[in-house]
Amino acid sequence: MARPARPFEGIQHVAIKVSDIERSLRFYTEVLGFSVSEIRQPGEHPVLPDVGLCFIRCTGLHHDINLVFRRGRDPELEALPKIDQGTTKDLGIHHFALRVRDRAEFNGWEAWLRENGIAIVRGPVVHSPTHPEGDGTWGENRALYFCDPDGHRIEIFCEMAEMDPRTNGIDPRWYAERLRQDGQDPSRFPPAPPFRPVAP
């Protein structure tokens, strides 16, 4: 059987284990502004006797994040070392990202996080080897990173590059417009090179 020809529409949600559901709910709803769709306690369904599920959303869909928890606080999880804030020392999710519309919203979120005592562990930064403000890394977006109470690293970003599928490079019109928005003259910079889709 052949693989379906239609590509995926995108990555829709992430499920993360949390050690204290009440603490995590306060963080994701009060600090990040998520809404709760539903909470199912451990044991509500025979298939999940030990696991509770809290579905939260930032869009019109039922959930964008699924907080997975055990009854009350989970001493076994709390006893584990905190996640190493996004390093690659261990297997698992490195980070997940939340997209905002534009630079003004991005700056507003940075100010809000700082006002609420949330440490920015990296950024704000422009991930780009070609943009004049770029940090030399890859990804082609503007980003900042912080952690939830269990140490899961979260990215807020805007201005993700739009791709030209014919060249596997950044759409030159998008790239020129981003430079103009950043107060730069696009004619002073070479076009962004195409990417290598596979290892050499």
Automatic annotation (TrEMBL):
Source species of the chain: Tectimicrobiota bacterium
Annotated Pro residues bias: 188-200
Transmembrane feature ranges: none
Nucleotide-binding keyword on record: no
This protein's UniProt keywords: Metal-binding
Signal peptide positions on this chain: none
Protein name, entry field: VOC family protein
InterPro entries per UniProt: Glyas_Bleomycin-R_OHBP_Dase, Glyas_Fos-R_dOase_dom, Glyoxalase_1_CS, GlyoxalaseI/FosfomycinResist, VOC_core
PROSITE patterns found in the cross-reference section: GLYOXALASE_I_1, VOC
Example GO molecular function: lactoylglutathione lyase activity
